[in-house]
């Protein structure tokens, strides 16, 4: 590496360090004293306003805790910037509920910033290694680092969508069994709340967690119909929403609940059969790909190659 390039790299590193120091000084001056002192004082009451702006944790002797405390205001402002650029807070909140993640939209934006910074660090390390080898271009490196940051932010958003879809599939797979168990418990003479308590206590899974929250709401004094209506509004699976609405209506109008649960479980199983048949029909088309593009050309080659060889031998 030439001396001029080495000097440019060292100067860029020193300038970046000075910019980070100046940025940190500005952040410290702008951060309210209450936000910086409250997490380390456990005797004072934690107000809702402070809790909404910052996650309050007990003090720790770990250096990572100190580092996170220093970087948290910067991450919070970066998360606010990502929210202003991307928007869609309602969609994010809806997907967080579907994925079963007990975090706020702001915490998710902070995770997006962390993913983006991780991708930025990887891209920056790669471009620094390329610059040491004499192949670095400053403008291209900056563009790649910015693209890596944006890619990390988008990757976290896509990961959230994937988590929501995977949880919806797990709930759909668990629903027929839990619906049948509830129907059996109700048919045996138990009430809706007792049947729900029995099924939740003997099952595990994503749908069981949702029903556990419904049971907790009922035990805190919320009416049974209202708790199930809340489940129908928050779930991302249409079948479960229909089930919750059916239970709420059956309780309000006095409809036999066991028959409703048996019917809905049968509908879900029938829908699963139809989805399986449709998936098998699509797989038949994909199975033709290796036959047409691999097996058939080999068969034609074996059938015609001896003839071509014979013609080449007999032709003068």
TrEMBL record:
One Pfam family matching this protein: T2SSF
Organism, as annotated: Nocardioides malaquae
Name of the protein described by the UniProt record: Type II secretion system F family protein
InterPro entries the record matches: T2SS_GspF_dom (IPR018076)
Record field: transmembrane: 6-26, 113-132, 138-155, 285-309
Membrane disposition: Multi-pass membrane protein
Type II secretion system protein GspF domain sequence ranges: 179-304
The keyword Iron belongs to this UniProt entry's keyword annotation: no
Chief site of localization: membrane
Keyword line: Cell membrane, Membrane, Transmembrane, Transmembrane helix
Record localization: Cell membrane
Superkingdom of the source species: Bacteria
């Amino acid at each position: 590496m030439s001396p001029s390039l080495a000097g440019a790299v060292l100067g860029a590193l020193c300038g970046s360090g000075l910019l980070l120091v100046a940025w940190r000084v500005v952040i410290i001056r702008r951060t309210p004293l209450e936000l910086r002192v409250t997490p380390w004082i456990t005797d004072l009451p934690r107000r809702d306003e402070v809790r909404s702006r910052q996650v309050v944790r007990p003090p720790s002797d770990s250096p990572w805790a100190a580092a996170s405390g220093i970087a948290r205001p910067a991450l919070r402002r970066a998360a606010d910037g990502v929210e202003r650029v991307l928007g869609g807070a309602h969609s994010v909140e809806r997907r967080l509920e579907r994925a079963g993640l007990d975090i706020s939209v702001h915490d998710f934006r902070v995770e997006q910033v962390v993913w983006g910074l991780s991708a930025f660090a990887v891209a920056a390390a790669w471009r620094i290694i390329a610059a040491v080898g004499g192949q670095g271009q400053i403008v291209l490196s900056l563009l790649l680092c910015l693209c890596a940051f944006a890619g990390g932010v988008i990757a976290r958003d896509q990961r959230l969508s994937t988590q929501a879809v995977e949880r919806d599939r797990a709930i759909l797979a668990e629903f027929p069994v839990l619906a049948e168990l509830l129907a059996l418990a109700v048919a045996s003479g138990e009430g809706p709340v007792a049947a729900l308590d029995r099924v939740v206590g003997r099952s595990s899974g994503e749908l069981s967690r949702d029903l556990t929250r419904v049971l907790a709401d009922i035990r805190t004094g919320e009416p049974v119909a209202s708790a199930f209506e809340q489940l129908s509004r928050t779930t991302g699976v249409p079948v479960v929403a229909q089930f919750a609405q059916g239970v709420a209506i059956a309780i309000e109008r006095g409809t036999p609940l066991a028959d409703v649960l048996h019917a809905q479980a049968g509908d879900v199983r029938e829908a699963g059969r139809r989805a399986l048949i449709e998936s098998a029909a699509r797989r038949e088309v994909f199975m033709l790909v290796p036959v047409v593009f691999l097996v058939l050309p080999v068969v034609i080659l074996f059938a015609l190659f001896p003839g071509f060889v014979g013609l080449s031998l007999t032709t003068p």
